[in-house]
Design brief:
Elements lengths: L5 H10 L3 E6 L4 E7 L16 H8 L1 E7 L7 H8 L8 H42 L12
Antiparallel strand pairs: 1-2, 2-3
């Protein structure tokens, strides 16, 4: 079984004492897990005593991410900081920001759709004018 570097384990404990790093023989990856007050009861998700989900449930942890050995570096701590919901203001603030982003995306999509509809209506109107003989289509250039 691979052993994690001591410096990494020390920094992980200093970063968050509720995090642990566990090797998964089944996946051949490191499992970064967080201790929680309430987890699934063992056997709820998997019944094999060696399965990662079972081990996490038994020990009271949840999965944060799976990592290859090459990802055990200091960049991981910055990624964890950038994605820490509590540091970002909690679930509600993050959910509100996501809702605001979704609303702006939808607004931009509808604006582009409206512009496309106007262009198509203008083209169709001009085509109808030509068809009805109310205007003449001249594709040539004017010489000034």
């Amino acid at each position: 079984m691979p052993k994690a570097p001591d410096w990494f384990l020390k920094e992980l404990a200093a970063f968050d004492p509720y995090l642990r790093l566990r090797w998964s023989p089944r996946l051949q990856l490191w499992q970064l897990e967080k201790k929680v007050r309430r987890s699934l009861a063992p056997g709820t998700s998997k019944t094999d005593g060696w399965h990662d989900d079972y081990v996490r449930a038994r020990d009271g942890y949840i999965l944060v991410c799976s990592l290859p050995f090459s990802r055990l570096n200091r960049d991981l701590f910055q990624i964890l900081r950038n994605n820490d919901l509590w540091a970002l203001g909690g679930w509600k603030k993050v959910a509100d920001a996501l809702d605001e982003y979704d609303a702006s995306v939808e607004e931009n999509r509808m604006k582009k759709f409206g512009e496309t509809c106007k262009e198509q209506a203008r083209d169709f109107y001009n085509w109808l004018k030509i068809r009805d003989g109310r205007t003449v289509f001249n594709s040539g250039f004017l010489n000034g």
